[in-house]
Design brief:
713 residues; alpha+beta; OB fold (Dihydrolipoamide Acetyltransferase, E2P); six-stranded mixed beta sheet; five-stranded mixed β-barrel; 19 strands; globular
Length: 713
């Protein structure tokens, strides 16, 4: 038979073979992808909370308030597309996205309340005392406002938060109180793109913050509303319990035990907070999934073991379900005693779903249960998707369960169960757990806090067993002993365990290289790392490794991210410039060392400078300054910082940008040849950041980044 290939030139035969090889390989790849896709069909539901959260995040990231019809229109279009069989998966994703968007929009409207528009001094406030948080030198009061002198009823904030630094007072949570205070609007970000305290307070119903100048005085009332009475009894219990723990064990150790039990952290000193943060143990200070899991888990296993000793019950009754139900009730009580803060709510929802799964004869630890918990939390509090606590807790839990699902499928069934083998697996499990949890949460910690605890692994390997086998069991026993008045020694025992952890944290923090700080990351890098991490954890076929491709993409975005060279505070009082000291290290220099100290710390964190170890320097140490201001020369641009009007004309004539720490008249502004930012701009647009590159200037404002949203009014 005639062979076409033999009749062709040799180079054409090689080309034909290459084409055949390519198409054969392409067919094999397509077949393999189809097999993997078919194997993942049962895991598609795990992406439901991802799409729901993406819709909520899309709502919050808008620069202006979306119209009310956006979510219904998107839902209607997705429902219509659902009829097309090949488009059903995309349509279902769009429906969930629209549901998250709508949930966020509804939640925002449901908590909407007036915020203070301007500072007021020495105003008389009347309202119901909602909460009291004790700090070493002050008390923070949250008040449900009835009236504020000088503020119309329709413009009165629903709730205010004030700090009282004076003597003790007789009023208790739930009482109607009267006090005088100086109030300010909720604080705006200290730098464009920084943490938005006003948005956080908006969803807490707080419309003003400030300082009390008189002690709150209780006002008699005939009858307290039922809900207010219940809330007051819970808050009063928390206050008394925290005081009881602190009295039994004074100092930071007792304050940390009180924080773990009641959720009240204000009594912990700054030094202890810093030690736990820089040693990677900060998660032990706030009630989270770890604490809720330990508390409910100890109840579950202890009760189950106790019931197993009663042979008739163990052989005839579902004691496992009884123990799970008891753990569920104990978790709810813990939630009440802890004050029901958002992290505690998330922890309770996640934990309760696990115990409900046990009661329903389902697998407790599974990614499906994590997805259900995330779905419920996002529907209830969609604003949580932007909070670091939500992001880090679900990143850790998702990564851990994905790892243990993978590892358990490959476990050796003939492995040894001797005491030594179990101990070895426990120690190894704690180490692996911390490595995975640290790796999963690291992108969010670095994005939000710009610092990494380099020795968190050994610190956690030693501290988590202390919390699980010493502190939490002692706290549970102390709670049980409290009705009999025998709790004080047990609280001291719990505090002794915390004291060991505190000494470990301080030692770890003091090690050379214990902390690394990083400049601010772009949001796009966190987006890619999140998608890559979810793909790695939620998929099961080999293509899950494709999630690792997010690492070089994020690294490229981080490396290419520009950083500001100059900052202006939101009140227009201070300017900070990034410089290099005599050793070539980054340094922040400000024009006034006495003002805007919190803002200066934020600017240093944005630049990757450790504000715990470095202080801001004076601008005059690096640039020519006089009584009228300073001239900052950086990367080919000249920026004049003007303190008073006397030098404005000269600055406008020679500088590329003038920053005036006072209000400039319209006539002077019109006559200024340079770009001009004055104090009125700071008041109206918030903090400013100036980017300088090869003499070119780009100015960014907090107002432009925040947009026009309900919490920015």
């Amino acid at each position: 038979m005639f062979d076409v290939a033999r009749s062709l030139p040799r180079n054409e035969v090689g080309a034909e073979r290459s084409v055949r090889w390519f198409f054969a390989r392409l067919t094999l790849v397509c077949r393999r992808l189809a097999e993997w896709s078919a194997a993942e069909q049962f895991r598609i539901g795990l992406w439901s909370p991802v799409m729901l959260g993406a819709g909520a995040a899309a709502y919050f990231l808008q620069r202006s308030e979306p119209a009310f019809w956006v979510a219904p229109l998107l839902t209607a279009a997705a429902v219509g597309a659902f009829r097309i069989e090949k488009a059903r998966l995309a349509a279902a994703a769009a429906i969930l996205f629209a549901a998250g968007f709508a949930a966020a929009q509804f939640r925002t409207a449901s908590v909407d309340a007036p915020s203070l528009s301007r500072p007021i001094s020495f105003a008389t406030i009347e309202g119901r005392l909602r909460a009291v948080d004790e700090a070493p030198k002050s008390r923070r009061l949250v008040i449900d406002v009835h009236s504020i002198d000088g503020i119309a009823k329709e413009a009165t904030p629903r709730r205010v938060r004030v700090t009282w630094r004076g003597r003790e007072f007789a009023a208790s949570p739930g009482d109607i109180v009267v006090l005088r205070a100086s109030l300010s609007p909720p604080p705006t970000p200290a730098a464009p793109g920084g943490f938005d305290f006003a948005r956080q307070l908006y969803f807490q119903g707080v419309g003003a913050v400030g300082f009390a100048v008189s002690a709150p005085e209780a006002v008699p009332e005939d009858a307290r509303p039922l809900i207010a009475a219940f809330r007051a009894s819970i808050e009063g219990l928390r206050v008394r319990l925290a005081a009881r723990i602190s009295a039994a064990s004074p100092g930071d150790a007792g304050a940390i035990v009180a924080a773990v039990v009641t959720g009240k952290r204000e009594a912990i000193s700054d030094a202890a907070e810093a030690a736990f943060r820089d040693s990677g143990l900060a998660h032990l200070l706030s009630i989270s999934g770890l604490h809720m899991g330990l508390a409910t888990g100890l109840i579950y296993f202890a009760l189950r073991a106790l019931l197993a000793l009663i042979e008739p019950l163990a052989l005839t009754q579902p004691i496992k379900k009884w123990a799970a139900f008891a753990a569920l009730i104990s978790g709810f009580l813990y939630l009440l005693v802890s004050g029901g803060a958002r992290p505690a709510q998330r922890a309770f929802i996640m934990t309760s779903i696990f115990f409900i799964a046990i009661i329903a004869d389902r697998r407790a630890l599974s990614l499906r249960n994590v997805a259900i918990a995330a779905f419920v939390i996002i529907l209830m509090t969609p604003e949580a998707v932007l909070h670091p606590g939500f992001q880090m807790s679900f990143a850790a839990v998702t990564a851990l369960i994905a790892w243990y699902e993978w590892a358990s499928a490959r476990a050796d069934p003939s492995r040894s169960f001797s005491a030594f083998a179990r101990l070895r697996r426990y120690v190894g499990g704690v180490a692996v757990t911390d490595v995975i949890a640290s790796a999963a949460t690291a992108p969010y910690a670095l994005f939000h806090f710009n610092r990494a605890a380099n020795f968190g692994l050994p610190a956690n390997v030693l501290s988590i067993p202390l919390m699980g086998f010493w502190v939490m069991p002692a706290a549970i026993v102390a709670m049980l002993a409290m009705p009999f008045g025998a709790d004080a020694p047990v609280w001291r025992l719990a505090a002794a365990g915390v004291d060991v952890m505190l000494r470990l944290a301080e030692w770890t923090r003091a090690l050379p290289g214990a902390v690394t700080v990083f400049p601010a990351w772009p949001a796009s890098s966190l987006f890619f790392l999140t998608i890559g991490g979810l793909w790695l954890c939620l998929m099961s076929a080999p293509w899950r490794l494709g999630g690792l491709a997010a690492l070089p993409v994020a690294a490229t975005l981080i490396a290419a991210n520009p950083h500001p060279g100059l900052f202006l505070s939101a009140d227009g009082d201070n300017v900070g410039a990034l410089v290099e000291d005599k050793f070539g290290k980054a340094q922040l220099a400000v024009i006034d060392l006495r003002k805007s100290k919190f803002d200066a710390r934020v600017w240093m964190e944005e630049a990757g400078i450790d504000a715990e170890k470095q202080s801001a320097a004076a601008l005059a140490e690096f640039f020519p300054c006089d009584a009228s201001g300073c001239v900052v020369a950086t990367d080919g641009a000249e920026i004049a910082v003007s303190r008073d009007r006397s030098g404005l004309d000269e600055d406008c004539a020679r500088a590329d940008l003038v920053i005036a720490l006072y209000v400039v008249a319209k006539r002077d502004r019109a006559g200024c040849k340079a770009r001009l930012i004055d104090r009125r701009d700071a008041w109206e647009k918030g903090a400013h950041a100036v980017y300088v590159r090869n003499g070119n200037l780009r100015i960014e404002t907090a107002a432009a980044r925040r947009g026009d949203r309900p919490w920015t009014d």
